[in-house]
Write a structure and sequence with these properties.
The complex is a heterodimer of chains A (209) and B (287).
Chain A lengths: L5 E3 L3 H25 L13 H26 L7 H14 L14 H23 L11 H31 L4 H5 L2 E3 H7 L1 H11 L1
Antiparallel strand pairs in A: 1-2
Helix pairs in contact in A: 1-2, 2-4, 4-5, 7-8
Chain B lengths: L8 E4 L15 E6 L8 H9 L26 E8 L5 E8 L8 H5 L6 E4 L4 E3 L9 H5 L6 E2 L6 E2 L5 H4 L6 H5 L5 E5 H17 L6 E3 L9 E5 L19 H7 L2 H23 L9
Parallel strand pairs in B: 2-11
Antiparallel strand pairs in B: 1-5, 2-9, 3-4, 5-6, 7-8, 10-11
The chains are: A mainly alpha (209), B alpha+beta (287).
């Protein structure tokens, strides 16, 4: 049997940045959820109780934003929308329902991944701005109460939107076998890449030649 | 105080199950008759004395309001307003500001910390500081701009309606000390009855718009005012004409919470069953 050939998908820096973001995201999400719904308040014990959760959440939130900014600089170029993405989206239903999927056009990222990337970028920016408006004791005092109320609702709603996006992101990695190796070792098999990101493989091999 | 009165709690912040509610208690109220207040501030002194609070000496901003605003250590402040309802006839309106003890408290609704804010069966809304996490959501929720967060300990403070005194059958300190009888305390029903006699009296004296301030938008309050110009409560240092919990706060603490949890749990469940139905997406030549 032929030995599996691998392609390099992520550098060490990419992966460290990603996993730092994962850890920080879980910390903010869990601490935020504990203050969002009473049934989830028990999560605050993970952070040393209610007051510590309240103190830590916004600081970790800022780190999430900075960490994502790193990912943004690394990946934004590959997430620019192009004509192929419409074709991919049209075929996404068949792909999800498990019908043998045709080779859908995708570069380094497919349309679904791109949507998620921009969704993360937008929601994180909104979360940062709205979060500052009611961050006590440092900033909340500078804003009128009406704005604080609006920011609080928008912050909560946006956070739920982001968490839903992350659930999709995690599931996609579990569902599509061969994906997680990209983030644990930085490598993907050539056959995996050809199946999911034919445009990227073409680009990679072209660069080599 | 609350741990000694667990049967007397009608509502508890960030708690989704009902509070112990077998015991029934008459609702209490403090009635502040603005028309017989002389602005002596004895109530402010009694409040700081009973609650053992000493605010720092502030500075004068050209009004009689001292301190200028409610603070973590000043739970009540006399608000002085000079108005001309009829032109040429100056009126000095003095309102004792502080927590209104809403029947539907916005602070309690907004609070994310279980048991940090409670409403007793008698209607008093109390902050249980040991459970307070200092997030300031009570400030966001309050339609009267009452809670204040301490810079020292990041806890929220406000008038407790002397819940400790009331629980042993005493009137609040401010009521006890008021020299003109402008502040009264009793069952809400009795206070309404007394207010009605005051209003009749005021109307006879020419204040046709005299009335009781017990705003229905927050389910009524357990601190009520007799106002000589009840049609214009905003004259009294911006007392809101129709206070309500902001619809944004209601949205945030209402439908948004259960729907969001449903959506998140639904997404995880959806993913799980998708995997079980469709199976993993595998690249054949990898095996």
């Amino acid at each position: 049997m032929e030995e599996t050939r691998y392609l390099r998908r992520y550098s060490d820096g990419d992966r460290i940045n990603h996993w730092a973001l994962v850890i920080l995201f879980f910390c903010t999400a869990l601490s935020g959820l504990s203050m969002f719904h009473p049934s989830l308040f028990f999560l605050s014990v993970l952070f040393g109780g209610g007051p510590w959760t309240r103190i830590l959440h916004p600081f970790i939130g800022v780190l999430v934003f900075l960490s994502f900014a790193g990912m943004y600089l690394r990946l934004a170029r590959d997430n620019v929308w192009n004509a192929d993405d419409r074709v991919w989206l049209a075929g996404a239903g068949a792909l999800l329902s498990g019908r043998k999927h045709e080779m859908l056009p995708a570069g380094r990222y497919n349309a679904g991944q791109k949507i998620l990337f921009w969704w993360m970028a937008i929601t994180l920016a909104v979360l940062l701005v709205t979060g500052l408006v009611f961050w006590r004791p440092y900033f909340a005092g500078y804003f009128p109460i009406g704005l604080v109320r609006l920011a609080t609702v928008v912050h909560s709603l946006t956070a739920v939107g982001l968490i839903l996006g992350i659930i999709v992101h995690i599931y996609a990695a579990i569902w599509v076998k061969g994906t997680t190796r990209a983030m644990t070792r930085g490598l993907v098999s050539e056959s995996w890449a050809k199946r999911h990101h034919p445009g990227w493989v073409a680009q990679m091999t072209q660069d080599k030649r | 105080m609350s741990s000694l009165q667990s049967l007397d709690i009608a509502a508890r912040s960030a708690t989704t199950f009902p509070s112990p509610s077998v015991r029934r208690e008459p609702e209490v109220a403090k009635l502040i008759d603005v028309t017989s207040c002389i602005g002596c501030k004895a109530c402010q002194v009694a409040c700081m004395q009973w609650n053992d609070l000493r605010d720092s000496v502030g500075d004068n901003d050209g009004t009689y309001d001292n301190p200028r605003d409610l603070t973590p250590a000043s739970w009540t402040v006399m608000r002085f307003s000079e108005v001309e309802v009829q032109s040429g006839r100056l009126e000095w309106l003095i309102r004792k500001d502080g927590c209104m003890h809403c029947e539907d408290p916005g602070c309690l609704k907004a609070c994310p910390a279980p048991g940090a804010i409670v409403k007793y069966a008698n209607g008093i809304v109390d902050f249980i500081s040991e459970n307070c996490i200092g997030c300031g959501s009570c400030v966001t929720g309050c339609p009267f701009d009452v809670p204040r967060i301490s810079k020292k300990d990041s806890k929220a403070y406000k008038c407790s309606l002397c819940s400790d005194r009331v629980s042993v059958g005493l009137e609040p300190a401010c009521v006890k000390v008021c020299p003109t009888g402008a502040i009264r305390f009793g069952t809400k029903e009795d206070m309404k009855e007394f207010a009605a006699t005051r209003i009749v009296d005021l109307k006879e004296r020419g204040y046709q718009q005299a009335g009781l301030y017990d705003p229905p938008g927050v389910g009524g309050t357990h601190v009520m005012y007799v106002l000589q110009h009840a049609d214009q409560p905003q004259l009294y240092h911006g007392l809101p004409a129709d206070p309500k919990i902001s619809p944004l706060v209601s949205l945030w603490k209402g439908v948004l919470k259960p729907l969001s949890v449903l959506a998140m749990v639904g997404a995880v469940a959806g993913a799980f069953f998708h995997y079980m139905k469709v199976g993993p997406d595998e690249t054949e030549s990898e095996h």
